[in-house]
Amino acid sequence: MEHTGYVHVYTGTGKGKTTAALGLILRAAGAGLSVLLVQFLKKAEYCEHEALKFLGDRITVRTFGGERRIGSPATDEDRRLAREGLAFLGTALASGAYDLVVADEIVVAAHLGLLLKEEMLALLDVRPPSVELVLTGRYASQELLERADLVTEMQEIRHYFAKGVPARRGIEK
């Protein structure tokens, strides 16, 4: 009997969306599943990339982010990288080669207009039924929330960033 995959959305203003996806990646890899992590708006400069290397060929990581900083306007380079990431993700997802596919920060990329919301939603249509698909990021659209099988909203109650604490290596990056 073939495994049934589901669509997860991790959204909201709180910390932990990517972290939750990484926890699922760890669990899936531990179960021997093949995993693809595609990150939008991020470069391969985060500590999780170093940690994921220890899990070997069960996990493929691709990043599609430039020099953009949170709050800065989107550039043509941001748009180009997001389009490249979407094309890669669509092909990889449709191939069925992965048991778990995580599209990290794709929701934000669509919110910023780097991708069309409809293009992001089209990924749900090309997903083979056996593939688990996770989309993360703030600002999930109502259409995405309605189509997902699992929706988790991270809600910020308090965050030390408001006190001026910068992102720390090993904790936020």
Short description:
With 173 residues, the chain is of the alpha/beta class.
What keyword list fits this structure?
6 strands; six-stranded parallel beta sheet; 173 residues; Rossmann fold; globular; alpha/beta
Explain what you see.
The structure is a single chain. The protein is α/β, with parallel strands linked by helices and 173 residues long. It has helices at 17-30, 47-53, 76-95, 106-111, 117-126, 142-147, and strands at 7-11, 35-40, 59-64, 100-104, 132-136, 150-153. It contains 6 helices and 6 strands. It has a 6-stranded parallel β-sheet with strand order 3-2-4-5-1-6, sandwiched between helices. Helix 3 runs parallel beside helix 5 (117-126). It is globular.
Query: Ranges with pLDDT <50 over ≥5 residues?
Result: none
For CATH, the homologous superfamily is named as P-loop containing nucleotide triphosphate hydrolases
* Number of discrete helical segments: 6
Count of individual domains: 1
SSE layout and pairing:
Layout: E1 7-11, H1 17-30, E2 35-40, H2 47-53, E3 59-64, H3 76-95, E4 100-104, H4 106-111, H5 117-126, E5 132-136, H6 142-147, E6 150-153
Parallel strand pairs: 1-5, 1-6, 2-3, 2-4, 4-5
